[in-house]
Design a protein that fits this description.
The chain is of the alpha/beta class.
Amino acid sequence: MDLQLKGRVAIVTGASQGIGRAIAETLAAEGMPVAIVARRQEELDQLASTLPTECLVQPADLRDPAVPAAVVAAVVKRFGQLDLVVNNAGSAKRGDFLDLTDADWDDGYGLKFFAAMRLCRAAWPHLKASRGCVVNIAGMGGRTASAEFTIGGSVNAAMLNLTKALADRGVQDGVRVNAINPGLVVTDRLKTRITQVVAEKGVDEETAARQLAGGMRIARFGQPREIAEAVAFLASPRAGYCQGTLMDIDGGQTRTL
């Protein structure tokens, strides 16, 4: 299926590994020039060397309030347009609510929510001009709360509300805004959780992974490519009637309406 993305320009944050890397690879395979943003330049450079389309490497810390606008300016200067923003950067510390510090909360919101908000704000005039798109990568924790994920769950919920609010604005401005809620996807972050289960329960990694999936009542973990392909679809004209869509891709983990 031709997604009609060739020649359109994307920004992908958190692109150095995991889901973000898969998104950049998938969009480039569809013919999109991409700007890849993360803090680790070496990993960005390695990714850029493998992509089939023109790539702008942007090593940057999106927690800095000035960085999102600078990234957008660099992309428009290089490519002359901006058609897609994928807000994927961000992670949040897990743990007992009473043990989490103000710094932990500031970090969780700074990288995921405020960076995404600032990037959307800076990109909006260009997306309006190109009738472009935003795809936010939130997470199923924003739909189903858990005691050990108070920061991440609340950040993801805020991302979903921001998605709906910007989609409402996007109706009049011609900008489509949608979000994806990944479940447990095979990334370094998931491997860290499996290692924690190994330490806590004294089992091997295979057993820990099986127990983690079983505890969520899912048959398997997701693959980064499965999230990336959904991003490409939402960014394409094939998804032209998707506005404010919140797409759960979690193997059936979320069972609420």
